[in-house]
Amino acid sequence: MREDLRELVGSYLARLADGVVPPGEAADWALLVMEQESAEAVDPKIWRALDQLAGADLLESPGKYLHGREDFACWRAEFEADFSC
Questions:
Q1: Distance, CA of 9 to CA of 76 (rounded, Å)
Q2: Which of 4, 13, 34, 55 is deepest in the core (most CB within 10 A)?
């Protein structure tokens, strides 16, 4: 696993929650990382966050995202809490 992956995931979660990165960009990045990495080689907490990011652009209905900034902020808080100890 790349050593910087935890930092990159945290950065994407933060920028997504802050509205700096669009959901599609975050999802595309996460899917690319998941294709390049092995789930067995990545910390499960990081993999879960990647999975969440990969679904950031899911649609509930045409033109309406399933997840919003509140969800992204929760994902970010969960991720930060996982590594606070």
A1: 9
A2: 13
